[in-house]
Amino acid sequence: MGDVLQKQKFEIRLAMAEDAEIIHAGLLMIARHLKAEGKVTSTIEDIRRHGFGPQPAFQVLIAEVGLAPSSLQRGEGGPQGRMRGAIGPEFADIPPHLPLGPLLPDGEKREAMFAGMCLFFPSFSTWRGQKGAYIQDIVVDERFRGFGVGVALVRHTAAHVRAEGGTYLRLSVDAENVSAQHFYERLGLSWSRDERIHAAYGDAFEALAGQHESGV
Fold it and tell me: Which of 140, 126, 197, 116 shows the shortest CA–CA distance to 168?
């Protein structure tokens, strides 16, 4: 039995529309970590509507543990294939507190536990004249931290972006999330001291969008 448990793996695949519930749960996981659950107003339907279809606003790579053998044989997960890594045996019998993966094309249930995800969308550098991607959200389930899942997600995202013609990654980190800042720096994502993020949301955005209506 010990040998079987040692063979537990995590794998990374490109999300499908059926993963909307899992993705949204991952976003709530981030919010809980930052003690900011009240700031999350998106819904599962928002994720499904904007993340999938002919013009998706973003893409998501999902890390899973304990895929069904038939899935492993088929090697699903998009043109980049799957990235594998070892997971400790102590996680083999833990029931998931997030939904299981979606059904496979032949109707078979994907026997997998959510281990983490990385949500990103296209970016373009006008000064460089090159395409890239912006990582909006990345999270690893606390049960699977320390096993390289986060590193694999970032590296697989970089590989996916490169395969689509991109040459860089960008992201921002909550000012108080020091551990995440150190994590990204160790991976080579350096802090840009020359930039500051400015944003307009809600009423501020509506005011900007409506200025032309007053003739300004």
Answer: 126
